[in-house]
Write a sequence for this structure.
């Protein structure tokens, strides 16, 4: 079945810096890749997703890139702010199957 | 629209007991997935239901079971609780299944003593 590896497990940046989180997946048939943000004590919330027919997607300060050949996708956050501090999860799925999540990255943004 | 709700929010049980957790999806959503979240392990998929049928199942022992009702509400049951079952149990709903965006509930925090 699908396996998703996520790196790094923790990431500390200064406010205004960029942050990059990378995930690799094992099943080349995977075609849906969402990213979730979970603040302390709250539920995971979708922040951006990408499908396999697209190489990059941007939403304000957040972007996701997908490299199907290498089977990896990345989350890029620019101009980080303290409120970006949270745990970020990547996930992958094949249509009709379950979402498989990475183990999460704890992002800390210090001002 | 009201979001995904889960009851109860907190539970304390002892080893050997059983527990039932409930999830009410967003109105109109027909798919419900369940996840176990523990520190360091992220979100591990338990099972997914769509139109009262289990569509996908994760790699958990048979002590973990679930069901979905005709109104799309879902329950999961854990029998013969073990200390290692202590976790946050999250459910997520989506309109369909497969590539659909999933919306999470607040979770049920289960502590097994």
């Amino acid at each position: 079945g699908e396996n998703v590896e996520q790196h790094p497990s923790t990431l500390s940046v200064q406010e205004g810096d960029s942050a990059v989180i990378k995930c690799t997946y094992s099943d080349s048939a995977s075609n849906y890749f969402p990213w979730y943000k979970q603040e302390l004590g709250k539920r995971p919330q979708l922040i951006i997703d990408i499908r396999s027919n697209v190489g990059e997607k941007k939403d304000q300060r957040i972007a996701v890139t997908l490299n199907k050949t290498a089977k990896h996708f990345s989350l890029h956050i620019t101009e980080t702010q303290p409120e970006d501090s949270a745990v970020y999860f990547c996930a992958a799925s094949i249509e009709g199957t379950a979402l498989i999540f990475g183990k999460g990255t704890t992002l800390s943004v210090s001002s | 629209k009201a979001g995904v709700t889960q009851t109860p929010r907190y539970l304390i049980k002892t080893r050997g007991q059983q527990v039932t957790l409930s999830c009410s999806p967003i109105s109109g959503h027909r798919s419900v997935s369940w996840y176990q979240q523990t520190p360091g392990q992220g979100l591990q998929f338990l099972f997914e239901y769509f139109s009262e049928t289990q569509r996908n199942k994760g790699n958990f022992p048979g002590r973990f079971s679930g069901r979905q009702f005709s109104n799309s509400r879902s329950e999961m049951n854990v029998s013969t609780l073990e200390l290692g079952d202590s976790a946050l149990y999250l459910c997520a709903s989506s309109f369909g299944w497969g590539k659909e965006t999933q919306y999470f509930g607040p979770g049920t925090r289960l502590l097994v003593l």
User: Anything to note?
Assistant: DSSP finds no helices and eleven strands in chain A. The interface with chain B takes residues 6, 31-32, 34, 36, 42-46, 49, 51, 89, 91, 93, 95-104 of chain A (CB under 8 Å).
